[in-house]
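Q: I'm writing a short methods note and want an example of a predicted protein-small molecule complex. Could you take the sequence and the SMILES for L6N33NVT and return the bound structure as tokens? Please keep the output block clean; save any remarks for afterwards.
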Amino acid sequence: MTDFLPEPPFRHDQPSRIGVLLVNLGTPDAPTAPALRAYLKEFLSDRRVVELPRVLWWPILNGIILNTRPAKSAAKYASIWLPGGSPLKVHTEQLTARLAAELGTRLGLPLVVDYAMRYGRPSVAAALTAMREKGCDRILVLPLYPQYAGSTVGTALDAVHRVLLKTRTLPDVRSVRHYHDRPGYIGALRQSVEAYWAEHGRPDILVMSFHGVPRRTLELGDPYHCECLKTGRLLAEALGLAPEQYRITFQSRFGKAEWLRPYTADTLVELGRTGTGRVDAICPGFAADCLETLEEIAMEGKASFLNAGGREFHYIPALNCRPTWVAALADLAEEQLTGWLPDPEQHAGDAERLRERARRAIAAGSPE
Ligand SMILES: C=CC1=C(C)c2cc3[nH]c(cc4nc(cc5[nH]c(cc1n2)c(C)c5CCC(=O)O)C(CCC(=O)O)=C4C)c(C)c3C=C
Ligand SMILES: [Fe+2]
Ligand SMILES: [Fe+2]
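A: Understood, no commentary inside the block.
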């Protein structure tokens, strides 16, 4: 066997480190048709994303979708592009830096915290290779999807495992599969909604919109639908909402097959038509704002609701790098790192003290 990845020779004098790798979906390099074509080709060739037999899917993808969708999607990306690039990339980068600072302070260890994208750049392989080169022999993989779906977390972990298959000296690896019901995540969502309502007032109905998946995956056993419903219910409970004050919906349908229902777009039209004055929308499954939240919900969703007769529509931003969210992710990571730390008891104490400090800062209303 000669197909292992090259790796630096083992060195006794190199400090051994812990790596924390955040993994997000990925995004095009530019809001242009050629960049979209490359991104969509990689994304939509993933068998975890499109589960059709290749003989059926290949001609549709290469003959139709990759000739029509890139230009249309590029125009949508252009409408949300930031000076630093795609919002998904900008927010993921910022979140990584904040998490690195938080974990560094809490643990007082030379950690390597980085991010990778499942599609596009930086690839999972490049990020893992860079971590190994920095001496990481223990790596925690933390996908930025609170709810598990085979088409997101499943494929992100496939990418990690594909690299490991070619690695001679394996690191210790742990991964977090989901955190859809974790108090830290739900608490960060609650705090973000309450902060928004304190500033802008309250809606008649809160729409919680999650990315959809084909309905067939639910029938085949994917837990995604149930995890979204649980997140929605826990958030509603945390906010003290009665059942008639919120809806849980699914957006971003792709293709002709049935996806999870109710569809967000249909719900917004129905709410507008039936005289709901104000709707606020939040997308709890998206850790970072991106095309699907900023264009599909905040722009298209708003237009559908207002055109159907609604009076006022607000999009509540994703968690991005809110301090409560950074603290929740750091808690998740820290929990997984137990046993890898030099002196867990001593560090557990440090972490509690630092968490208390973070809680006090949040209570005192420190800015994002
Ligand atoms: C074809 C099937 C798709 C499945 C299944 C799917 C699941 C899925 N996606 C996300 C999160 C995101 N998707 C985003 C964009 C996006 N998604 C699809 C298709 C499927 N997604 C496409 C073709 C695109 C590209 C844009 C377009 O042309 O419409 C994004 C935004 C990326 C960005 O750059 O901003 C996110 C995030 C989840 C969570 C999910 C299953 C649970
Ligand atoms: Fe998607
Ligand atoms: Fe979309």
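A: Remarks, as requested: DSSP finds 13 helices and eight strands in the chain. Residues 25, 27, 40, 44, 49-50, 69, 73, 86, 88, 145, 149, 151-152, 211, 213, 224, 252, 254, 285-286, 290-292 surround L6N33NVT (ligand 1) (CB under 6 Å).
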